[in-house]
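Ops channel
N.P.: pipeline sanity check, posting one input/output pair.
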């Protein structure tokens, strides 16, 4: 019962982490490059 509750609690966290990782993977390099150009 506790394990099931924990799983249902962790599932949205893993989904959010997966979305963040997806965004960082695709948008991250562009953001880093734009920061480098802004700094220079």
């Amino acid at each position: 019962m506790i394990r099931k509750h924990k799983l249902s609690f962790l599932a949205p966290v893993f989904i959010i982490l997966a979305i963040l990782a997806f965004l960082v993977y695709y948008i991250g390099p562009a953001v880093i490059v734009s920061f480098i150009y802004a700094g220079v």
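N.P.: looks fine end to end. The radius of gyration is 17 Å.
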